[in-house]
């Protein structure tokens, strides 16, 4: 115990002794401790209650354990470290833990320094205990008999935060597995953001066995394999539960080699979560996850990993934002990758070419030459990648992705013949179960036909692609491409008879289902 803590405890002990001698209840004593120790030592209301009872952190934890057992619940994850964080103001207890803290101290949340009612709804007021209906934020100090002291039982437990957010994701996952329709509502998004923020907190503040790390790494790789064929919301629940487990392992600093492996997994899982959030249409959350991924990757010192996170982040402005930002991120990723054979070394130049095409449009020779040089660098870098990286569509970069992205850049540059040839090759690389990327490729091929003046064939390709989509298989990222074709036709031949048919098919499109499909 530091000298400051010792002085705080001694003053609280004196206040408690005098209060008990005067017949005051511990709730009143807690308020006096808060008033006198707060300005000098920063004592919080919740800590004042423990000091008023004259018990240690372990005693409070055991009381909460006993209350959980009384209610037929499994042992809680709260431990001394987490309770200490509550008392210091670094963390706020979730609704469930706050309920049991109120039960242990027999007061309302406001008496412990937290606004709002308890989740139980009936309150915790007892005779002689601080009332929950406080005036001006201060408890009623009317005289009353003392309530019993908290049961003093020794014990210990490791700190474990975020259980309620994980439970939200587990419930969502169970509903999805049961075939229920689950909305991406505020509660789910709140849990997603809380888990990400906790990882941020842990990264800047963190023992696991190598065997456990091996299992987590295998799980991370497995999530990457599932990315293209698992509904995004279902995969997000799985990924974030693993992400949360990694964060807990990092709360205590590990040996350097283990810490680096944990940071690598954190970066990969954060990056994958960002990719999933793009597919779910939440671009703000996607950016937040990519920033978290960058923080984690920076701690590994792995240039290839850092470059991968930034390259993947470039897809957000590339699809939904400012192409200039995408260009800056792509070049930053390219510079980070340097001469290291890796996925980002091939990805970044392709994204750079796509951003250049979006900024400058078709037909400008200097832009076309600059973009084609970038695509040439990408092909050269791809040939230097390992076979494992060339087969990994999430953490690596596959041949079909290379063809797809090259074709997309060339279409935007106005290079119709070359683009159509590459896009046709790209389609041969996809299987029958793949639908999102192949549909986007077909819309790009329709644009190629438009560039060549074949309006009717372009509309036929686009209409066939649109009508071939199953119900709920029309995410926003795909429908943008469909409307791009319509706008291009309107600019070239607004009176074409097939244009009206195509527009009617677009307007008849069912509502978007954000629970399916992943874009590469």
Number of DSSP strand runs: 0
The shape is elongated
Distance between the termini: 54 Å
Element string (H = helix, E = strand): HHHHHHHHHHHHHHHHHHHHHHHH
User: Helix coverage percent of residues?
Assistant: 55-70%
Q: Averaging pLDDT over every residue, what do you get?
A: 83
The assigned structural class equals: mainly alpha
Percentage of residues in DSSP E strands: under 5%
Radius of gyration: 29 Å
Main sheet makeup: none
- The residue ranges in which pLDDT falls below 50 over 5 or more consecutive positions are 126-160, 511-516
Task: Describe what this molecule looks like in 3D.
The chain has helices at residues 3-21, 26-41, 45-53, 57-70, 80-88, 95-105, 163-177, 186-204, 210-226, 232-250, 256-279, 283-298, 303-313, 315-320, 323-337, 343-360, 365-384, 387-390, 399-412, 416-427, 436-451, 455-467, 476-492, 497-507. With 520 residues, the protein is mainly α. α10 (232-250) packs antiparallel against α11 (256-279) and α16 (343-360) runs parallel beside α19.
Write the layout of secondary structure elements.
Layout: H1 3-21, H2 26-41, H3 45-53, H4 57-70, H5 80-88, H6 95-105, H7 163-177, H8 186-204, H9 210-226, H10 232-250, H11 256-279, H12 283-298, H13 303-313, H14 315-320, H15 323-337, H16 343-360, H17 365-384, H18 387-390, H19 399-412, H20 416-427, H21 436-451, H22 455-467, H23 476-492, H24 497-507
Keywords:
520 residues; mainly alpha
Question: Quick recap of the structure?
Answer:
This protein is an all-alpha fold. The protein is 66% helix and 0% strand.
């Amino acid at each position: 115990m530091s000298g400051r803590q010792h002085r705080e405890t001694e003053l609280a002990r004196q206040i408690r002794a005098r209060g008990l001698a005067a017949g005051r209840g511990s709730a009143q004593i807690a308020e006096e401790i808060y008033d006198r120790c707060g300005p000098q030592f920063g004592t919080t209301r919740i800590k004042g209650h423990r000091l008023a009872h004259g018990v240690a952190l372990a005693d409070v934890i055991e009381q909460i354990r006993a209350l959980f057992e009384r209610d037929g619940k499994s042992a809680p994850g709260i431990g001394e470290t987490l309770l200490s964080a509550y008392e210091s103001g670094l963390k706020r207890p979730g609704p469930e833990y706050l309920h049991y803290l109120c039960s242990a101290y027999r007061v309302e949340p406001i008496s412990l320094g937290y606004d709002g009612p308890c989740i139980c709804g009936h309150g915790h007021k007892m005779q002689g205990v601080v009332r929950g209906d406080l005036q001006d934020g201060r408890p009623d100090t009317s005289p009353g008999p003392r309530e019993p002291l908290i049961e003093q039982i020794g014990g210990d437990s490791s700190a474990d935060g975020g259980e309620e957010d994980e439970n939200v994701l587990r419930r969502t996952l169970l509903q999805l597995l049961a075939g229920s329709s689950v909305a991406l509502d505020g509660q789910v998004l709140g849990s997603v953001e809380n888990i990400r923020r906790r990882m941020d907190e842990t990264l800047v503040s963190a023992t696991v066995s190598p065997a456990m790390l091996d299992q987590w790494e295998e799980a991370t790789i497995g999530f990457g394999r599932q990315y293209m064929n698992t509904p995004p919301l279902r995969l997000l629940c799985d990924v974030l539960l693993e992400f949360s487990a990694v964060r807990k392992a990092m709360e205590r600093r590990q040996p350097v080699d283990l810490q680096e492996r944990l940071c690598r997994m954190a970066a990969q899982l954060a990056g994958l979560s960002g990719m999933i959030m793009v597919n779910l249409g939440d671009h703000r959350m996607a950016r937040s996850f990519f920033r978290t991924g960058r923080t984690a990757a920076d701690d590994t010192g792995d240039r290839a990993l850092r470059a991968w996170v930034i390259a993947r982040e470039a897809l957000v402005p590339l699809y939904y934002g400012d192409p200039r930002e995408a260009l800056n991120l792509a070049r930053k990723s390219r510079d980070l990758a340097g001469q290291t054979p890796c996925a980002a070394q091939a990805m970044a130049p392709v994204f750079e070419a796509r951003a250049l095409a979006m900024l400058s449009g078709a037909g400008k020779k200097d832009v076309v030459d600059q973009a084609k040089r970038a695509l040439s660098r990408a092909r050269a870098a791809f040939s230097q990648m390992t076979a494992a990286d060339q087969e990994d569509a999430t953490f690596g970069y596959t041949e079909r992705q290379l063809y797809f992205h090259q074709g997309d850049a060339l279409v935007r540059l106005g290079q119709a013949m070359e683009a159509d040839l590459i896009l046709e090759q790209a389609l041969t690389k996809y299987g029958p179960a793949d639908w999102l990327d192949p549909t986007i490729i077909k819309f790009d091929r329709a644009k190629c036909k438009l560039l060549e003046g074949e309006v009717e064939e372009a509309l036929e390709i686009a209409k066939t692609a649109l009508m071939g989509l199953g119900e709920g298989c029309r995410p926003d990222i795909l429908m943008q491409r469909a409307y791009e074709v319509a706008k291009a036709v309107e600019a070239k031949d607004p009176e074409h008879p097939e244009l009206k048919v195509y527009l009617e098919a677009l307007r008849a499109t069912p509502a978007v289902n954000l629970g399916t499909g992943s874009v590469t």
